[in-house]
């Protein structure tokens, strides 16, 4: 994925809030944090002194200093810096800053360096599945109530159904218990699909697949939601999406090779 940069308008917006005159970061803090990230990411930044290069001559205020420095980083680095600054203790009860963080994740979670949000998931090419997982990723970090965590689980449940509908064929994949699978019965559809398509695989592989489906199904139906449960739910849905997509692609390859 090309890294690029976060939209300049958002960088300006975040800088105005984080560097707000009364309740924002001080000029000294801005330079301190920016210098630290510049060293960590090996990036040259224009404003490295708390006098802002003879104050007023190079930049007019601390908000502009933060803005100019943030512009020098790539999108992933900008994401990390803005997220970290929003999570400083001094901003814990600052609604404007928390809104910045919320919008950051809603719009730019694809730039997160966290394996949960980026590295652990490769697009399946199933548009609805990829879109739903992206939505779960965007909602997870700013979520702070049980209702919001439960909403992530609900999206996960719908995502599992969508995954199952992509691959399940009732004529080809008989259910394990002989009960007809409804169009919303993700667990029964996925178990039937795995049983059929992994018939020639080792028992360990089939067991892993079945357990993964069972875990994801349980987690997406868990109503006692917390940040941890929502995070594990997301990971499990990503795992199932990747697993089923791999089986499906292998199945298609085998069909093509024998055609």
Commentary on this structure:
The protein is mainly alpha-helical and 259 residues long. The chain has 2 domains: 8-113, no CATH class; 124-257. The protein has helices spanning 8-18, 27-41, 62-70, 75-86, 95-108, 115-119, 127-140, 146-167, 186-197, 203-220, 227-257. Helix 5 runs antiparallel to helix 7 (127-140) and helix 8 (146-167) crosses helix 9 (186-197). The chain is elongated and about 75 Å long. It comes from Proteiniclasticum ruminis.
What number of domains? 2
Helix content: 55-70%
Provide the gyration radius in Å.
Answer: 23 Å
- Summarize the helix and strand pattern as letters: HHHHHHHHHHH
> How big a fraction of the residues is strand?
under 5%
Shape: elongated
The tally of beta strands, per DSSP, is 0
Q: Please state the structural category.
A: mainly alpha
Number of H/I helices: 11
Note the gap between the termini.
34 Å
Largest sheet: none
Please give a quick description of this structure.
The chain is mostly helical. It has two domains: 106 residues, no CATH class; 134 residues.
List the helices and strands and how they pair.
Elements: H1 8-18, H2 27-41, H3 62-70, H4 75-86, H5 95-108, H6 115-119, H7 127-140, H8 146-167, H9 186-197, H10 203-220, H11 227-257
